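Field reference: sequence -> structure
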Amino acid sequence: MTIRIRKCILEDLPLLQMIGSETFNETFKDQNSPENMKVYLEGAFNLTQLRTEISNLSSEFFFIYCNREVAGYLKVNVSEAQTEKEGDEALEIERIYIRKKFQGQGLGHHLINRGMEMAKEQHKKKIWLGVWEKNEAAIQFYRKMGFTQTGTHSFHMGDEKQTDLVMAKMLKSILKRG
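Structure field:
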């Protein structure tokens, strides 16, 4: 199995839209009304919205490939792009999704590790994310990766207000000796 992670560029917007909509729908369609899913998908994954997000210098998107096929993606935010005011010493993983047919192959670990590498390169002290309180599999995965719950925040799915757990991991400083 060949794994590769690459940064998304503007020309990737149609593919990002497709992968984003597909993975979000696969993950949450069974727990949410079709109407709320439609509203969310149309708002979060329209090309104008994605163009704004990918053009923000404080956000980055990455595709993960498994044997040359896009298997999922990662979105990270720093500074003012973070969905919560966690400060300049934090990096947020806003989205991490793996397509259903690629789940269970360790690809989520690769994406989390990419986020942690970025945080360390940028001298961040913590990495954090929000995960729906009903997404038990994801919560367990993040706990295994060393994240702990530090709070909650609201997430709006159409006309429904849901609760996300805020989970964070403190990063060890890397001291350079010279």
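Note: The beta strands are 3-7, 59-66, 69-77, 90-98, 126-132, 148-157, 160-170.
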